[in-house]
Amino acid sequence: MNETEQRAQVGNVHRIEVHAAEGHTDPVGEAVLRDTQGLGLKRTPKAVRCAAVYLIEAELSDEQVREIAEGLLADPITQRAVIGAAEHGGGALVEVHPLPGVMDPDAEAVELALRTSQGVEAKVLTGKRYEFEGLHQPEARDVAERLLANSVIQAIHDEPYHPEKLPSGKKYELVVRDVALRDLSDEALMKLSRQGHLFLSLDEMRGIQAYYKQLGREPREIELETLAQTWSEHCVHKTLKSTMRYADRAEGGQAHASRPGHTVNVDGSVTIKNLLKSTVAAATHELMADGIDWCLSVFEDNSGVIEFDDDYAVCFKVET
Fold first, then answer.
1. 4, exposed or middle or buried, with CB in 10 Å at 0-12, 13-18, 19+?
2. Cα–Cα distance between 58 and 92 in angstroms, integer?
């Protein structure tokens, strides 16, 4: 491989890296380099190199590890495989790996491939190695925290990560919890909303409180989480469905007078009732009334259906 193989195996865990081959582009590294330019850093890296990391926990011979590295994980034309941790020529290095219990689809694919091609039951963890030319280690760590990793689901390492045993999640113990909120003050309700990461308004918290007072019991934790999720901006679109007051300084309020759901106020501002229904949905229905006949079902449920041809339709769902 023409590579210095460092710590190829620790305990029963084998480490394999896949780098871009000499003369071939590193699109992930180039994308990270571009993205760092928007972070407002005191200095940006001169170059960023990225490699995929595979940690495989299994009983494997050296021959099997080499076959997996060169025949399964790396493209022999555009990539080069390194068993262990490759040396790097200066700059700073960070690695990002998923935390225990977080889904790792690439690892699952490798586990399946090893099972079918090698007859080996293995546990796999994947990650990304980033080398920053021209940055010191604290600066590379800052880039990783701001750009490359989500601390809720990923861990950042300041050196090649190679544990003796791959981490695993803890066994979950079911605990049913009630949340005491029926007798809380307004201040305490908002504290619960913030600290419980519910992010509901006071009116919404009061509504939940009144409902459970009527039921004569406290809400269970799962009930409160479900209400918060269902009433979240992402799901119910509170802003898009709200009543908005808008001042059009360029055209003036009269330009909106004929639009559905729009009311022109005395001061020239415009009150828009249900922003989504009165703008995007209204424009779509206007186009349909003018002759667009391929919209079969729009703004009726969680997606829209349009005609593809005489026999088929296509269902589109767009996330906000």
1. exposed
2. 30
